[in-house]
Amino acid sequence: MAYTNDKKLKIGEAAAFLGVTVQTLRNWEKSGKLAAQKSEGGHRYYFQKDLERFTVDLPSLGLAWASSAQLPQIPQEYYCERQDRFTSRLEKMALQLLHAGVVGRDMASLLTAVVGEIGDNSFMHNVGNWPDVHGIFFAYDIGKRMIVLADRGQGVRATLSRVRPQIATDTEALRIAFTEIVSGRAPEKRGNGLKVVRRIVERGSITLLFRSGVARVLYPQKSSSLIVETATDNIRGTYAVITF
């Protein structure tokens, strides 16, 4: 899957491509959900590749990447094989958040910090021990106010068990990771980064879904209540959806 079609579509053609009305497109542009380009004459147009990207269900794609036995095909821009590439894309996202004007500077900083902690955790705690595919899935849609990260690593329970071998379940592992300082020699320690994530989420208008193994954590927007529960399917590494 690759977005390489630079064909320009007029607003009516773009509306037909997405199956919506022209007025809906204008409303989306006004709200920041889907930006239009403008010609020198002031006419709106869209690149087809941007519309294709807009139609992708990022949470489902990230979930499939994290949990499927066979990797689904994803756009190359969503795959960060190394930590330096992740850092570069994170910096790009931070600039785009500010440029889009969808959130203020403070919220942009909070979102960047949350994403940075989760992504860096994936690399730090799996270095040299990736079960199959190294690196992470990292995709975002600022218009939809959504960020998705996933990895096919060892998962929270396995990495926490290096310093807490008595952990018996995935739900217990996630609860510890988000609420307790876990001491241990790097890179064996795990959980401190996720505790930072919890504190940041509690401060901002951010909703977080985080999964690993057969457990998931849900932090509703503007809530200090940590919900940890058993999921119906297994995530081999970690999977996170951030909405704002």
Automatic annotation (TrEMBL):
The keyword DNA-binding applies. Gene3D superfamilies: 1.10.1660.10. Keywords: DNA-binding, Repressor, Transcription, Transcription regulation. This is HTH merR-type domain-containing protein. It holds the Pfam family MerR. GO terms for molecular function: DNA binding; DNA-binding transcription factor activity. Residues 8-54 form the HTH merR-type domain. InterPro entries: DNA-bd_dom_put_sf, MerR-type_HTH_dom, MerR_fam. It comes from the Bacteria. The keyword Repressor applies. PROSITE patterns: HTH_MERR_2.
